[in-house]
Amino acid sequence: MKYLLIDSSTNTLIIMLHDNNHLIEEQIRVGKSDHQAHIIPMIEQLLLNNNLKVKDLDGIIVGVGPGSYTGLRVGVMTAKMLAYSANINLYKISSLIFLTSGYEKNILAWHDARNNQGFSAHIKLGKITSEEKVRHMTELSNSDLDELLILDANTIKVDGKVILQEKVVVDNIYELIPNYLRKTEAEKNLDKNSNHS
């Protein structure tokens, strides 16, 4: 069984081809708010390298956040479109689990959300042990700081076997939306304007 694994929640765009037991190939690109220009060509190249078409896959697993608003939309929309058009299963997983799946120790996964805040969760062996939420640096205890893992291109460590184990099937592809964890600036402004009117 072969799966396409996608995460676009950070500046590091990760595309992997994995079977039940091992990584077949991966494409990783560090960008800056430009995943939409590269995600399809990277997937096409990965499949071409392995003589596969999307319909040959047994499923697509996508990191649904939390993370960058634009990045998340690119990955989730691409995964939905490919799964729908090829009529194959779509699975979701927390991006924080996806990006830290290669770690065996207890960690507080932290993806920068600006202003000393982070999209974060405590994770142990691919399982979330405290809720995913936006935390402020000043809220962190000493033990949190000891376990803190700030996600970037150098600290992301991925293990496809953990991702396959923790994936959750998406029953209704139309209802899958990214886990943004907080409102975008546009939504905040809309709320402000509607409160004043």
Describe how the helices and strands are arranged.
Elements lengths: L1 E6 L4 E8 L3 E8 L4 H15 L9 E5 L5 H18 L2 E5 L1 H6 L6 E6 L4 E8 L2 E2 L4 E4 L5 H6 E3 L9 H7 L1 E2 L15 H12 L1
Parallel strand pairs: 1-4, 4-5, 6-10
Antiparallel strand pairs: 1-2, 2-3, 5-11, 6-7, 7-8, 7-9
Helix pairs in contact: 1-2
How would you summarize what this structure contains?
The protein is of the alpha/beta class and 197 residues long. It has helices at residues 35-49, 69-86, 95-100, 142-147, 160-166, 185-196; strands at residues 2-7, 12-19, 23-30, 59-63, 89-93, 107-112, 117-124, 127-128, 133-136, 148-150, 168-169.
Order of helices and strands: EEEHEHEHEEEEHEHEH
Shape: globular
CATH superfamily of one domain: ATPase, nucleotide binding domain
User: What low-confidence regions span 5 or more consecutive residues with pLDDT below 50?
Assistant: none
Characterization of the model:
The model has no long low-confidence stretch (mean pLDDT 93). The protein has 197 residues and is an alpha/beta fold. 32% of the residues lie in helices and 29% in strands. The longest helix is centred in the middle third of the chain and has 18 residues, at 69-86. It has a 6-stranded mixed sheet with strand order 3-2-1-4-5-11, with helices on both faces. It has helices at 35-49, 69-86, 95-100, 142-147, 160-166, 185-196; strands at residues 2-7, 12-19, 23-30, 59-63, 89-93, 107-112, 117-124, 127-128, 133-136, 148-150, 168-169. The relative contact order is 0.18.
